[in-house]
Amino acid sequence: MTHKSILLILFFVFTHWLSIAAAEQGEDNRELLFGSVAMDIPAVMHQRLSPLTTYLSNTLGIPVSLKLSPNMKTAIDDTVKGKVDLVYLTPVAYLKAHKRSNTRLVVKTVTKGKGSFRLMIVVSDKSPIKTLDQLFGKTFAFGDKAALLQRAVVVGAGVPLEKLGSYKFLGHYDNIARAVNNGDFDAGILKDTMAYKWQGKGLRILYSSNDLPPYNISVSENVSDELLHKIQNAFLNLDTKNPQHLAIIQSVDKKYNGFSATSDSEYDVIRQLIKPFEK
Question: Are 203 and 123 in a shared domain?
Fold first, then answer.
């Protein structure tokens, strides 16, 4: 092999390496799309999550834009298909996305200092209902039809669905709270932070579940392990003692006071709870 041939081979190897490096660098510097389950109407969810995406854009040095989903099924599909890069998910939504793809946890939310959350059955302040068995024959409001954990908690509380007079799926937690407050339903189930928001303002908490692994931030398989680590650090570096950081956290949910590390095994309890409700 001639000297010229060796130089030519080395040139092609070097340029190939450069193209790979550039592609990898480009992958981690492209715009990231941030998705979310629909816990509220899109306009409100956009308002809640915009301060967080601005913070992530500035911290990561990468544009981060919102791509919100109208319901849980779409949020899961968008994550699995890589239509979003990072996403705010319920425990069940994470498990469904993880089962179908390489969706990975980044951090979990912290509510009132606890890395867990509860689901709560609520009734109107004016309701005569004082015990769970008094829900038999009554109307009940659930959120998203795909939110299996809500049904699991109600049944686990001793209220079989067939014992209810009727039940409907209203989509967002805010819809549930307003419907029960307005007297359209006798009872409904809310995330703890929404229940606290309405407590003493029209609704009364009738029942609270045990502590459950909470809502989380996850990434789709589009995201490299290196970028995942950078995103995780950005969340963990949010300092509640910093007023600007606290405002970002509480824009997502007023009862949140941080994010912490988590693992897939922490969500095994949810897997067991929803198993009887999966088709």
Answer: yes
